[in-house]
From TrEMBL:
One of its GO terms (cellular component) is cytoplasm. CDD domains: AAT_like (cd00609). Belongs to the class-I pyridoxal-phosphate-dependent aminotransferase family. Keywords: Aminotransferase, Pyridoxal phosphate, Transferase. GO terms for molecular function: kynurenine-oxoglutarate transaminase activity; pyridoxal phosphate binding. This is Aminotransferase class I/II-fold pyridoxal phosphate-dependent enzyme. Residues 29-378 form the Aminotransferase class I/classII large domain. Its cofactor is pyridoxal 5'-phosphate. It comes from the Bacteria. Pfam families: Aminotran_1_2.
Length: 381
């Protein structure tokens, strides 16, 4: 047998795959992986169907269906006061994960350092390593998981090439505030540091808070890849359609990588989404839709022994469980799915060193019946 010199020797199957498979195996309620258990909009499905019947079944342009890019440009300018040229500064991707990987591959070379904040979405570090980069992880702690910018300053040096941000944040449900933007701006000023901003949950933000996109700050926009997706807001995670926005000089290089990864993305879905975006209520009403689910689930959890952590955005609710057990979070998560029939994600899986703060993550993007059944089981824990 020819041996393989693995580029990711420590990587195994993701915790999301493991927990969802186990949930299916034992018939548990799956609050682990981040996907809804209700259907996407019938209107959106019909628009995609119409696109298929109208002949949008061949390759889309490499950069994406132009009417969709035009709608995204209009939407971004209205929401954040930032104009992105749909021809040269917006690219449609095969989901947010592909966009993230492509942006990292575009600018990271061997021995470049990339600062990430843990707990972090699990695709960041592997993509950095495959590119030959060096991960510099700054660990955040519950309950607020706020970034300590004084520590970020200590990590920055001449080899720092990129800072990756995620707001609203998965898994902690925290968001960036103006003071974070100010601190970040000061750190990157006069430095050749790119920003990769994972904003896939941009519309899932609660309690009247504002989303601080890198797009709306000129000093940050000029160095940023802004990543978003349609899967989370439109309840269609299986469609895997996302996008990247960046200044033309960065996007030109991004597309050089993109064209050899996927070349083009699902054509009829792009056409359907382009039409769907014309009705602004389809995304402007999302905060209210998901806040109702968040509030309902949190109220239910108040009847359990879990300790609720803040949830300002995303569709995840984290909890501490120290009043229940001192087990490791991975062990407790396994016991929850096997003994109580509820699948969750142990947050230590989002730390490179497996740091365990005894925190679990629930997904509340579920039908009310699903949340009721889950709470009923969790009350028994």
């Amino acid at each position: 047998m020819i041996s393989v010199n693995s580029k990711l020797p420590q990587a195994g199957t993701t915790i999301f795959t493991v927990m969802s498979a186990l949930a299916n195996e034992v018939g548990a309620i799956n609050l682990s992986q981040g996907f809804p258990d209700y259907d996407t909009s019938p209107e959106l499905i019909e628009l995609v169907n119409q696109a298929m019947k109208s002949g949008f079944n061949q390759y889309a342009p490499m950069a994406g269906y132009m009417p969709l890019r035009e709608e995204l440009s209009r939407k971004t300018e209205k929401l954040y006061g930032a104009y992105y040229n749909p021809d040269t500064e917006i690219t449609i991707t095969a989901g947010g994960t592909q966009a993230l990987y492509t942006a990292i591959a575009t600018v990271i070379n061997p021995n470049d350092e990339v600062i990430i904040f843990e707990p972090a979405f699990d695709c960041y570090a592997p993509a950095i390593k495959v590119a030959g980069g060096i991960v510099k992880a700054l660990e955040l702690e519950p309950p607020d998981y706020r970034i300590r910018w004084d520590m970020v300053k200590r990590l920055v040096n001449s080899r720092t090439k990129m800072i990756i941000l995620n707001s609203p944040h998965n898994p902690t449900a925290t968001i960036l505030h103006q003071e974070d933007i100010d601190a970040l701006t000061a750190i990157v000023k006069n430095r050749d540091i790119f920003i990769l901003s994972d904003e896939v949950y941009e519309h899932l933000i609660y309690d009247g808070e504002a989303h601080h996109s890198m797009a709306q700050y000129p000093e940050l926009r000029e160095r940023s890849f802004v990543i978003a997706s349609f899967g989370k807001p439109f309840h269609a995670t299986g469609w895997k359609v996302g996008y990247c926005m960046a200044p033309a000089v960065l996007m030109s290089e991004f597309r050089k990588i993109h064209q050899f990864l996927v070349f083009a993305v699902n054509a009829p879905m792009q056409a359907g989404i382009a039409e769907y975006l014309k009705n602004e209520s389809h995304y402007l009403e999302l905060p209210g839709f998901f806040q109702q689910k968040r509030d309902y689930f949190r109220k239910g959890l108040e009847s359990t022994r879990f300790e609720l952590l803040p949830c300002a955005g995303s569709y995840f609710q984290s909890v501490k469980y120290e009043r229940i057990t001192d087990e490791k979070d991975a062990d407790f998560a396994m016991r929850l799915v096997k003994d109580f029939g509820v699948a969750v994600i142990p947050v230590s899986a989002f730390y490179g060193r497996g740091t365990d703060h005894h925190v679990l993550r629930f997904c509340f993007a579920k039908r009310q019946e699903t949340l009721d059944n889950a709470v009923e089981r969790l009350i028994k824990v």
